[in-house]
Amino acid sequence: MIRINGVGPRLALAILSGMSADEFVGCVQDSNSAALTRVPGIGKKTAERLVVELRDKMDHWGGSVAGGPAAAGIGDSARAVTSSPIEEAVSALIALGYKSPEASRMVRAIETQELADEDIIRQALQGVAK
User: Fold this and answer.
1) Exposed, middle or buried: residue 126 (CB in 10 Å: 0-12, 13-18, 19+)?
2) How far apart are CA 116 and CA 65, in angstroms?
3) Which residues contact 112 (CB under 8 A, 6 or more apart)?
4) CATH at 107
5) Structure confidence at residue 60 (pLDDT)
6) Together in a domain, 86 and 23
7) pTM exceeds 0.85, yes or no
8) Dihedral in degrees, nearest 10, Cα atoms 56, 70, 35, 87
């Protein structure tokens, strides 16, 4: 997401804080840029850019977001490989465009005990935004 022109760590954090991953994928797959503009910090042009540039990259998420393994954002086989919240968070940061060593460093820099993967991702992105 951060590789898209006009989208940095701060805006990526705003998107993840403003809507769930399922909602975001649904907006991109349905070309619903109007729903993306409801997130603070996203204007019409940025929303349209997100939809256009991420639509092809999100084909691997499956058809509809409203059911099946695609609803969770990753397939069952991927879930079997990465099971801990830390591994999930690192994988998500890599999917956002960070290099593997950088994503691992970001996660190690925060206290991760008893945090869900979403919270780890949010705190890691907040650390980068500061």
Assistant:
1) middle
2) 21
3) 85, 86, 89, 120
4) 1.10.8.10
5) 63
6) no
7) no
8) -90
